[in-house]
Amino acid sequence: IWADVLGYVRKNISEVEYHTWFAPVKNLGVQEGSLVLGVRNSFAQEWFRKHYLELLEDALRSLGAQHPQVSFQVLPAAQDALLLPSDPPPAPPVPGRVSAPPPSDNRKTLNPKYTFENFVVGPNNNLAHAAALAVAESPGKAYNPLFIYGDVGLGKTHLMHAVGHYIAERFPEKRIEYVSTETFTNELINAIREDKTTQFRNRYRSVDLLLVDDIQFLAGKERTQEEFFHTFNALYENHKQIILSSDRPPKDIQTLEGRLRSRFEWGLITDIQSPEFETRVAILKMNAEHNRIDIPQEVLELIARQVTTNIRELEGALMRVVAFSSLNNVPFSRAVASKALSNVFAPQEVKVEMMDVLRQVASHFNMPPDVIRGSGRVREVVVPRQVAQYLIRDLTDHSLPEIGQFFGRDHSTVMHAISKVTEQLGKDPELTAAVETLRRKMKGLEDEDS
Ligand code: ADP
Ligand code: MG
């Protein structure tokens, strides 16, 4: 009957979901009237209970079962390739019984996908990753608080959850609370309205690890700031670990009380930048493997070229390509991928790659590309370099840090170059002509290509 159940499930969920969740499931047979399924870890177990229990019961009902029952059991460690090597093996399953639920209820708010194992480390995030790992290994002792900031979709939430999972696995007795600033605020408002602020306080002040996401939303919320201030102090004084994420560093969060800002700066502040090309490809590759999708490297590279700043969008693009080729029943290819992504990324957004721009600039100024990218500081080199950075920013979607990295410099240098060129446009005839000629040439190039 298991094959029939799977058939039913498969019809009712997406292919990607099916492969992610159902492909690794083991049928352990029927015990005491209940279909027992083996899953890879306690997170998968929770996930199944929450998301697929009803679907599975429906499947059994469709096969004639009157009172369908399904339970989940965690399989022994060897079957879970995703666990870290240093992981202690989970307790062997008790035959005929579903293993105990995780000790602390709030763990289920952690996304099972957001683990360290699933986090690709690159130059853009290695410091944040190392800091998170250090905190996970000695909570409350390494850096407190850990403050991670960066643009949306770059992995802040993922890293926070990863610390949560890591601590949950190693220290089952520790209480972990993950909360978005928005939820924290709403809960506080409700608690005040229902006269339950004591419960609210007890709950947040009794945890061992508090993860607060998108703390920039504290801005302007005086009452919440006040409450969070006391929560922070209570935890900090008891050496409990606090991790905060934000889209900007503490000093840039407007209307944040000084005493909170300074507390946020007590520990370690670390940032995540946009991933460079290689990291983007690696993330796509890991995603594809995780979902058991066999997709050629060149197609992954094409996707990685199209989506440059946001990892969530990068994953979305991969899923779009997968959906497109399975719907049309065609194998993955660059052509198929371009087509799948063409509605999302309009033709005018087609990337003129950084190297192309650099080459054009180099030939215009009659100078080898490497010299322009080099460290020379004479005007003859500096001007072409600034023009190249300006044009790359103008014609491609690369972020300032990415452009900086391409030139072996940091993003503030690129910012400076861009404002320099902008300032001179219209004033310096030679520079203006160069920029215009190059821009026209490159727009033309794009047209020829497409
Ligand atoms: P943020 O909280 O910074 O907005 P998220 O943590 O929600 O970003 O990440 C967005 C998506 O990108 C998630 O699906 C996450 O798993 C994925 N992601 C981000 N960084 C990485 C990484 N380094 N390796 C693998 N996946 C990543
Ligand atoms: Mg987030």
UniProtKB/TrEMBL annotation:
Report whether ATP-binding shows up as a keyword of the record.
Answer: yes
Q: Per the record's keyword annotation, is GTP-binding included, yes or no?
A: no
Q: Where is this region: Domain IV, binds dsDNA?
A: 326-450
Q: Which domain of life is it from?
A: Bacteria
Enumerate the Pfam families for this protein. Bac_DnaA (PF00308), Bac_DnaA_C (PF08299), DnaA_N (PF11638)
> Where do the record's region annotations for Domain I, interacts with DnaA modulators lie?
1-78
Pro residues composition bias: which ranges? 86-104
Q: Where does the UniProt entry say this protein principally localizes?
A: cytoplasm
- Where does the record place the region Domain III, AAA+ region? 109-325
Domain (AAA+ ATPase) ranges: 142-270
Compartments where found: Cytoplasm
Residues given in the record as ATP binding sites: G153, G155, K156, T157
Q: Which InterPro entries match?
A: AAA+_ATPase, Chromosome_initiator_DnaA, Chromosome_initiator_DnaA-like, Chromosome_initiator_DnaA_CS, DnaA_C, DnaA_dom, DnaA_N_dom, DnaA_N_sf
Ordered alphabetically, the record's keywords are: ATP-binding, Cytoplasm, DNA replication, DNA-binding, Lipid-binding, Nucleotide-binding
Region annotated Disordered, chain positions: 85-108
Subunit description = Oligomerizes as a right-handed, spiral filament on DNA at oriC.
Recorded family membership: Belongs to the DnaA family.
Its annotated function is as follows: Plays an essential role in the initiation and regulation of chromosomal replication. ATP-DnaA binds to the origin of replication (oriC) to initiate formation of the DNA replication initiation complex once per cell cycle. Binds the DnaA box (a 9 base pair repeat at the origin) and separates the double-stranded (ds)DNA. Forms a right-handed helical filament on oriC DNA; dsDNA binds to the exterior of the filament while single-stranded (ss)DNA is stabiized in the filament's interior.
Q: Give the domain note.
A: Domain I is involved in oligomerization and binding regulators, domain II is flexibile and of varying length in different bacteria, domain III forms the AAA+ region, while domain IV binds dsDNA.
- What is the protein name for this chain? Chromosomal replication initiator protein DnaA
**Whose protein is this, by species?**
Deinococcus malanensis
- Gene encoding the protein: dnaA
